[in-house]
Amino acid sequence: MSEVLHSCAIRRHMVGCPDESLLMIRLLASLFMTVLLGALAPAAAAPVDGGHARVELIAERSAVMPGETIMAALKMEMEPGWHVYWRNAGDAGLPPQLIHRDTSTIPGGAIGSFIWPIPDLLPVVEGEIMDYGYSDQVILAFPLMIPADASGQLRLDVLADYLICEDICIPESAEVSLTLDVGEPVPNPLHGTMISDWIARAPTAFAGEARLDTSAMPWKLSLRAPGLTRDAALRFFPFAHDISHPAGQPASFGADGATLSLTPAGPDIPNGPLEGVLVIEQPGGTRAGYELSAAHGAAFGNTAGLAAIGSGRSGAGGSAAGLLTLAFFALIGGLILNLMPCVLPVLSIKAMGMVSAAASGHASELRSHGLWYTGGVLVSFAVLAGAIIAVRAATGSATLGFQLQNAPTVAILALIMFAIGLWLMGLFELGTSIQNTGSTLASRQGAAGAFFTGVLAAVVGAPCLGPFLGAALGAVMGQSAAAILVVFLAMGLGLALPFLLLSFMPGLQRLLPKPGKWMETLKQFFAFPMFLTAAWLLSVLGALAGHGAVAWTVAGATAIVFAIWLARRGGNWARVAAAAVLAASFAYPAVRAAAPGAIEGTPTAYAARFETEAWSPERVAELNREGRPVFVDFTATWCATCQLNKLTTLKTDAVQQAFADANVAFLVADFTRKDPVIAAELKYRERAGVPMYLWYPAGASEPDILPEILSKDLVIGLLGPG
Questions:
Q1: Based on the number of CB atoms within 10 Å of its own CB, is 353 exposed (0-12), middle (13-18) or buried (19 or more)?
Q2: Would you say 292 and 256 are in contact if contact means Cβ atoms under 8 Å apart?
Q3: Ranges 597-606, 638-647, 690-699, most confident
Q4: Rounded to whole angstroms, how far apart are CA atoms 160 and 38?
Q5: Closest to 697 in 3D by CA, of 627, 637, 649
Q6: Which of 506, 574, 200 has the alpha carbon at shortest distance from 358?
Q7: Residue 399 — very low, low, confident or very high, per pLDDT cuts 50/70/90?
Q8: DSSP H or E segment with residue 287
């Protein structure tokens, strides 16, 4: 050391050299590390190259006491792209094992079993061959019992035997050993930390209950436990080969847990419980495993019914990508909404206004029509979204069509439809009486009229959203207020888009017909769908508030005609009286509809008309216990799609006979009026409103959710062959 210091003293002025104190510290540190490594050296031999993996034995102690049990481990570092196997290798492979050698001074019986970390999926042939194992590195810890009479130095010699695979599989082995001093215990911090970290990756006991339902295909692994959230990915790794390893395991969630669908590996049902590890992966990638044993039995209630978020059924409404997907489908649904019968009569008003505007030759006027109409639609959908957000905040849930569960709203809508029909028939002209407001529906000054048409299209179109957007809107109903607003605005844009494009594209404008007498004829023709819409709304009103409310609304319609007759008499007094009568014709029926009183219908009356039973969760449970299949129709008088499905499918002789032959219980959940139990079920099943159709196979505690548009083949096909 003195020579080193002397050399530095000579060269310090030439190249720079640390002073004596700093150099001394460095030399002492180097000496300390040398001594420390020497002390640790007996604990492990150098890693052995087995061919495609570096293998060694490590331990948490470098020196041990007689009679204690320590943790040792087989450490394997694989070449990139190569892997070894879990305790159940899957469709092909063998797990690593230790073969005790006679040269060991530690007996073979002192070596405990591996503590297996949770594995990864190793797809060999996608959809056909699936293995389970580890890539890059794995540390397989095991308990090691030190003999009570141990002294001096102990040696553990084993053969690590394993199958390692990339595109091909190669059996390899490595002779590895571990040397331990006997005396006062000395920890090995480096190896101890490694072992502890990998033990922490091993599964723990499942805190809930597990049950395997093999009564139908696929099998149902029902898990009743807290904390099984829908944004997590679930995968069951079996200890045996009872299930198909490459098959998917779709997860369904409920309030009390989750259910995995498992495809059996063959026709045989396991004699004992299904055992394995449930791996739960959180959205951030954190994984945890739970060892469970599922006894045979019926699936637990409230552990299924809702798809995992991001599974494709509901979409990841909370993520940016999921929200964009929902918005896109909302846009498409809005486009299709233009073809619905409840919207088409209103759109005819807009179409005639655009024909007149196009004929005037003023491109700016036509663009104004399109923009004002789009504005009316978007404002209405924004208001609808705001109302849903407010209702959800106040009550905890909200559904589409809630405005048609309000009797005064329905009465006013029926009168508006009737009044529009009178206007289409030519009984009055709005522009002559309120010229200064710009409300003429089809004139050159029709900006406000175009806006009003957009509002009306949105209002009458809202109940028709279910067939296209029921699941998507159900997914977004639980999201943030901003997400709800984005999806509803996208839907409104889809509804307005055809007229908006027509307003701004000259090539499309040339496709518009020339105005003529045909317009007046067509205008009068579309009055009749408006009258029919008003009649339909009266039927809804009757179910909501009884025949008295219907009678007063018809009286209001008569008052509207009387107001028109008065206004055409001329004179100021006639116009003032007409305005008063007109105001009363809308206000008084709405007041009467809101008044408490006897209501003709009940939630069961609608069901009774079709010789069915009223739905309730309790009745479904009773029928399940009886082993009867159950079909549940979530419907409403104001739901046009519901009535279409009844006409074309549910009430046809073929479906009714098939249900009778299969002893199907047909339950009806009538959502014509507000019903908190039905609303809760819709929310639970992630549906924004009716229609919703649930199918419970015989004995099943959880249903399949059917499409919003039914067909006879689909419904009869539920009953199986024959």
A1: buried
A2: no
A3: 690-699
A4: 26
A5: 627
A6: 506
A7: low
A8: strand 287-296
The alpha carbon of 556 is separated from its chain's Cα centroid by a whole number of angstroms, namely 46
Query: pLDDT of 189-248, one tens digit each?
Result: 999 999 999 999 999 999 999 999 998 888 999 999 987 888 788 999 999 999 999 988
CB-CB neighbours of 111 under 10 Å? 18
CA-based nearest residue to 553, from 539, 567, 568: 539
Looking at residue 649, the DSSP 8-state letter turns out to be I
d(CA 319, CA 336): 26
Q: What are the DSSP calls for 412-456, one per residue?
A: HHHHHHHHHHHHHTTS--HHHHSGGGT--SSSTT-HHHHHHHHHH
* pLDDT score at 463: 54
**Is 622 or 326 the better-scoring residue by pLDDT?**
622
Q: Using an 8 Å Cβ cutoff, are 113 and 103 in contact?
A: no
Alpha helix positions (H), 264-305: none
Cis peptide before 515 (omega within 30 of 0): no
Are 502 and 338 contacting, i.e. CB atoms less than 8 angstroms apart?
A: no
pLDDT at 207: 92
Confidence of residue 143 (pLDDT cuts 50, 70, 90): very high
The sign of the CA dihedral 614, 616, 618, 619 is positive
Buried b (16+ CB within 10 A) or exposed e, 307-341: bbbbbebbbbbbeeebbebbbebbbebbbebbebe
pLDDT in tens, 36-74: 444 444 444 679 999 999 999 999 999 999 999 999 999
End-to-end CA distance of the chain: 97
- Name every residue whose Cβ is closer than 8 Å to that of residue 693 and which is 6 or more positions away in sequence: 631, 632, 633, 634, 645, 705, 706, 707, 708, 710
What distance in Å separates the CA atoms of residue 320 and residue 482, rounded to the nearest whole number?
A: 12
Q: Give the three-class secondary structure for 666.
A: strand
The label of the residue with tokens 């591996």 reads 114
Angle (nearest 5°) at CA 232 between 195 and 634:
160
Characterize the bridge pairing of strands 704-705 and 692-696: antiparallel
Residue 107 sits at φ, ψ, to 5 deg, of -65, 155
CA dist 634 and 693 (Å) reads 6
- Angle, vertex CA 380, rays to CA 680 and CA 439, nearest 5: 150
DSSP per-residue string spanning 85-139:
EEEEEESS----EEEE-TT-SS-GGGB---BPPP-EEEEEETTTEEEEEEESEEE
Q: What is the pLDDT of residue 192?
A: 95
Does residue 108 register a pLDDT over 90?
Answer: yes
**Does residue 364 surpass a pLDDT of 80?**
no
Residue-level pLDDT at 346: 63
Q: Which two tokens stand for residue 713?
A: 């083949």
User: Which residues lie below 8 Å from residue 23, measured CB to CB, with a gap of 6+?
Assistant: 4, 5, 8, 17
- Is the confidence at residue 470, as pLDDT, over 60? no
Query: In whole angstroms, what is the distance from residue 613 CA to residue 631 CA?
Result: 11
Beta strands (DSSP E) in 8-51 are 48-49
Q: Assess contact for 422 and 585: CB atoms under 8 A.
A: no
**Amino acid identity of 698?**
A
pLDDT over threshold 90, residue 505: no
